[in-house]
Amino acid sequence: MACTCSHEPAPQKPNSKFRTALWIALFINLAMFFVELIGGAYAHSSALWADSLDFFGDSINYAVSLAVLGATLYWRATVALFKGAIMAIFGFVVIGKTIYAYTKGIPPEAITMGAIGILALIANVISALVLYAFRDGDSNMQSVWLCSRNDAIGNVAVIFAAIGVFGTGSMLPDIIVAVIMATLGLTGGYQVMKRALQERKQNMPTQHVLQ
C-alpha cells in the first residue's frame, strides 16, 4: 500500500496591496508602450523604441505576476524565471535594433525624444514608488521592482540623450543610451533568474512513498 505526501509550502495569501500596485503599474506601462512605440518611430529614436519594448515586456511581467498571486513560492519562482528570461531577451532585441539604427545613420528628432522621455520618466517614477515597498520580497516581487527601477534609470538616460542629440546633431547619444538600456535588461534578467533558480531549488515539491 502506497501513500503519497506532498511537503511543498502552502500557497501564500495574496497581498491586496501588492495586487493593487501591480494593476496600477500594468495600466501605466501599457499606456506608455503605445506612446513610445509611436513616438519612437516618428522621432527615429532607437532609445525610445527600445524603451517602448521594455514597457511592453514589463506589462507582460505585471500581468503574469497578477496571475500567480496566491501560488506557492515554487511556482512564483518559476514564473519569475520566465520573466527574467524575457528581460534578458529584450536586452538582446535592443542591441539588434541599435545596430540596425547605426547602419541607417539617421539622427533622431531631439525635441520629440526629450518630451516623451520626460513623460515616460514620470510614469516610471510613479510605478517605482508604488512598487518600492515590495523590493525585498520573493523573486516575483523583486522582478517587478527591478523592471520599474530599470525603466526609471533608462528614462533619465533618454532625456540626457535627447539633450546630447539636440546639442550635437549626432545619433551617438541615442545609440549609447540604447546600449545602456540593453545592459540593464540583461543584468536585471540575470539577477531575477539567479534568485528564482535558488528559490525553486529550495522549495521543490517533494514526494515520499510509504510502503
Automatic annotation (TrEMBL):
Segments passing through the bilayer: 21-43, 55-74, 81-102, 114-132, 152-169, 175-193
Pfam families documented for this protein: Cation_efflux
GO molecular function: zinc ion transmembrane transporter activity
Location, primary (coarse class): membrane
Keyword tRNA processing tagged: no
Membrane topology field: Multi-pass membrane protein
Cellular compartment(s): Membrane
Keywords: Ion transport, Membrane, Transmembrane, Transmembrane helix, Transport, Zinc, Zinc transport
Entry's Gene Ontology cellular component terms: plasma membrane
Chain ranges of the Cation efflux protein transmembrane domain: 22-198
Record-given protein name: Cation efflux protein transmembrane domain-containing protein
Biological source species: Acinetobacter guillouiae NIPH 991
